[in-house]
Design a protein that fits this description.
This protein is of the alpha/beta class and 294 residues long. Helix content is 45%, strand content 13%. Strands 3-2-1-4-5-6-7 form a 7-stranded parallel beta sheet, sandwiched between helices. It is globular and about 50 Å long. Bound molecules: nicotinamide-adenine-dinucleotide.
Amino acid sequence: MSTTEHTHSSTSDPSQLLAVADLMSLKGRCAIVTGAAQGFGAAIALRLAEAGADVVLADRNEDGVKKKAEEMANIGYSATTQTVDIFNSKQVSAMVNEVAREHQGIDILVNNAGIFSNHYFEKMPVEEFQKTLNVNVVGTFNCTQAVVQEMKAVGKGGSIINIASVDAFKPSAEGLAHYTTTKHAIAGLTRSLAMELGGDNIRVNAVCPGAAMTEGAISLVMAGAPAGIDVEAQWNGIVEKTPLRRLCHPDDVAKAALFLGSEMSSFITGAFLVVDGGILVQPSEGYVPPSGGE
Ligand SMILES: NC(=O)c1ccc[n+]([C@@H]2O[C@H](COP(=O)([O-])OP(=O)(O)OC[C@H]3O[C@@H](n4cnc5c(N)ncnc54)[C@H](O)[C@@H]3O)[C@@H](O)[C@H]2O)c1
């Protein structure tokens, strides 16, 4: 294709442009959200369903996803459930095959399921390091590989959204070497797959949230300091370092995922959408903060 053909493949005639509501609509699309029983995953599932997608809530917590699906059905949203451990490639393949058969393909995959814990590196059991890699990295690999095969077979393209973290850029706190390693790995996977799958119009992007009080984070904070790290103190310091002066809300992440899943982001791949209230933008030494207009 020549440069001119590329340039003219999209119109700038306002009467030809899709309306914003149509760009945001996911009607007729099927979306799998992993880790959808609670936290970010549940919030993402809700927004994708609101936009019209047929959402599959996938989680190893069977009761949790069933409860979420019921809550969604009560407000008129379409959602089914799948009980799956994303580290188990056989379970993942079976889920993806079943969903693809029932929905004539899969359009969106949100790789959200993940685990986190606090351990000083020197005292970290290798099993903890391995477990975190298994869920956060190998689990994402399993789901993505199975879904990409289905997307390619159907030939309509698709959107893969990896829920990474601000830890994909740099460590957010002490005791997270294992977790930060996994999120850096997700960054590498996101970039590599954006390159490899772009020719099939499969877009691969990451959302990088800052700290949020999800059910998982609450358990971590409530556990106190079993590994000698005062997790509560860590979390207490976050808001004042955040330019927007609050923690991340699950719906902040859900809105970013909706954008990346929809036609609003049709020319975006290999991107990192940071949803952190600005915490990654730490001031240089000597920076004088605004006085607040006084
Ligand atoms: N909460 C935060 O502050 C924060 C910040 C940045 C990024 N993240 C990332 O966001 C994602 C979601 O985090 P959250 O805070 O909502 O967590 P959460 O613990 O509240 O929820 C995680 C969900 O994933 C499920 N899950 C865990 N392992 C699984 C497996 N092997 N197979 C299937 N399901 C599994 C759990 O059952 C749970 O429902 C994670 O990838 C996490 O690393 C969280």
